[in-house]
Design a protein that fits this description.
alpha+beta, Butyryl-CoA Dehydrogenase, subunit A, domain 3, 4-stranded antiparallel β-sheet, 3-stranded mixed β-sheet, 13 helices, 7 strands, binds flavin-adenine dinucleotide
Amino acid sequence: MSDNWQEDLLAFLRQNLPEAWAEAVEEGDQQTVLALRDELDNVDFVRQLGKSGWVAPDWDPAYGGRGLTRDQARQAINTLDEWEVPRTPRGSGLPLAAPTILQWSDEATKRRFLPPLATGEERWCQLFSEPGAGSDLASLATTAVRDGDDWVVNGQKVWTTMGHQAEFAMLLARTDPDQPKHKGITYFGMPMDAPGVEVRPLINMAGQLEFNEIFLTEVRVPDAYRISPVGEGWGATHTTLGAERFALSGTKKKKRRAKDEILGGKTIDQVIALATDLGLNQNPYWRQRLATEWTNQRLLRLTSQRSRANAAMGKTAGPEGSISKIAKASYNQSLQVLAMDLLGASATAWTQDNQAPASFVEEFLRTRANSIEGGTSEIQRNIVGERVLGLPREPDQFRGAPWREVPRS
Ligand SMILES: Cc1cc2nc3c(=O)[nH]c(=O)nc-3n(C[C@H](O)[C@H](O)[C@H](O)COP(=O)(O)OP(=O)(O)OC[C@H]3O[C@@H](n4cnc5c(N)ncnc54)[C@H](O)[C@@H]3O)c2cc1C
């Protein structure tokens, strides 16, 4: 590592990318860069990036970073974006588990979990939701009981995105049922290949395998893999959920939409192109609707700047992320509805020689989940009401009662 981190970064990029890539960046030839990117092995590139500390350049080198200041790290990320390289490992490790581990875990746990998370060698999924605990997550019933150096976990989780591919999970389990529901929860890192973990795939309505049911029977999790202090899992959960709202609110600055964009949905440019292909872009009715969506997209970007500005100042994602998340979900869904309306009958029946509507329909179906995943829009509105506007909290007749005594469906 030299003192000049900019030189190190450029040297890394030149060594790990085809020569033509560097030339195209210098010449501002974005078409060539994007064509080369399609040929790149993303997983392998991100692994090399992570091993060299560039996935999280502001982390301590002991955690797999470069030890840069926040400002330097932002410049490094800007350089990576200018080069149009993939820079995040798959799964929810980097956006969700990492901020939680950094804020809540002890030194040994940070050193154990963060380096392989940054390289993508250990991908993470999120074991929060249960059949009886979604919006009211704190009522969760999966238990963890201490046994020597381990915890023994029993319960069922659901909607686990990437559960069939992940190596580790962010697991919430109840460790003290005699405490009120928010107080007896502990947050663990759980290996997905531990004996007793059963993954059952679920197919979403777009026909894709995206999430799973997970059954946990007598699963042993070492205490060394505990992420939060015992009984303080709810505070750590807030760190994860704040980061998730931020990730799902579309507030990250991106020049190019990722191939595996988590929210799904066609972009406004793609929908305008569809209207043009269908010969409808000059029609005043459709022009008005396209203009409305285009304007919404610009407004959303402005709303998002607030969250980005906070993140840039090093503030953790707060309740204002809920505003962006609601806005993003509703904009994304109404844009896909416009695409369906433009397609008309061919959105329900397309011909063999024209498969184009299929991908619009698939994206329309996927985006229905936007107002559910990461906390429903109703719950986000409650958060805005209570924590941003200072309105009275929702009544809860069992507030403060031991979890064991609260009736559950
Ligand atoms: C695509 C997708 C991916 C997901 N991935 C994951 C994952 O990886 N890991 C994970 O743990 N979970 C995941 N989830 C689960 C998600 O977090 C939950 O679905 C969500 O929190 C809602 O919980 P629920 O489904 O139990 O609905 P419920 O909580 O039963 O809610 C049902 C309805 O009641 C409304 N409602 C409930 N309580 C209130 C209230 N107090 N005020 C107003 N309205 C209310 C809700 O808004 C909703 O409309 C995923 C979900 C989806 C759709």
